[in-house]
Amino acid sequence: MAAISSIRLQFPRNLNDSRKKDMSFYAPSNITNVFSNKRRFLSVAASYSDNPRKMDTASRVNVNGIHVAEAPLQAGRLAKESAADEAIVTSLRGRFVEDKFVFRQIFVIRSYEIGPDKTATMETLMNFLQETALNHVTSSGIGGEGFGATREMSLRKLIWVVTRIQLQVQKYNKCTWVIMNRQTRRLSKIPEEVKQELVPFYLNRLAVPTEEVDCEKIDKLTDDTAERIRSGLAPRWNDMDANQHVNNVKYIGWILESVPIEVLEHYNMTSMTLEYRRECTQSNIVESMTCPTASVLESNNNSKNRKPDLQYTHLLRLQHDKADVVRARTEWNFKQNQQ
Length: 339
Fold this sequence. Notes:
CATH superfamily of the domain at 159-338: Hotdog Thioesterase
Family: Belongs to the acyl-ACP thioesterase family.
Distance between the termini: 46 Å
Domain Acyl-ACP thioesterase N-terminal hotdog: 102-174
GO molecular function, one term: acyl carrier activity
Structural class: alpha+beta
Pfam family, one: Acyl-ACP_TE
Strand order of the largest sheet: 10-9-8-12-15-14-13-11
Largest sheet: 8 strands, antiparallel
Order of helices and strands: HEEEEEHEEHHEEEHEHHEEEEH
Keywords: Chloroplast, Fatty acid biosynthesis, Fatty acid metabolism, Hydrolase, Lipid biosynthesis, Lipid metabolism, Plastid, Transit peptide
């Protein structure tokens, strides 16, 4: 029998009514399963054919195994579920709050976005933040061509790249973005036209409280100071983003490659600060280096809520010339203390 799973079907807006009607009332004799899709108020029938080339035709509309018919629903229930659906879709799609200065989006954590401890990974959280930032630009109506670029930036061949980011679990994140020329790959000043384009959406507020901002210098590791080194890390095609370099979130996985397995198993990462030094392309091979910090300095932990049990310094560097790609610092708490 054919395996049935949840299917969502959407008609294009320009699909004419006669074709919709033809499809909604057509049902062949070899239907094997019927189920209802409450969210879209459609009932869907799936059929199985021994001949994969066999095609059924209804009023000159080819259908192969999937047929659609309107589900009989009461008007009151339809209106109620439709309103609830709209609220869910709006939240998942994202919306503006605080007089359009803040863009808020809800994410559903999927099974493949969690780690062995059944919690969302740091890469997942970073991906959510990146997705929200890009959707913010798109929803504001100033999106141009490129990865989160505005129209004025696109005209000047400018792109956003992140140079330093600090993330605190269960707290707000902080990151610093600069502008790079898409062709020369060099940092660029923000043109006045781009500034004016962003003014209506700019909110002068820090995401992380000033006293908790990690401004400490991240020391560079060497072959002598690193406790663990993992070599031969090669970017995959899927690691590249629209700016034609390895996406900044991918570096987190490489950093964790040199973290001791017992730390990954028994500790939660509670804070991460990354300094991006240069781009990494698909042809590069990377080394991951890690060293524990001798002691956690009180000056780095002014907040009463931040008392890490472990702190590590990390370095990602190109394998062929030892050039820095990313410097990072992570803080960890024993999992039992997190419960």
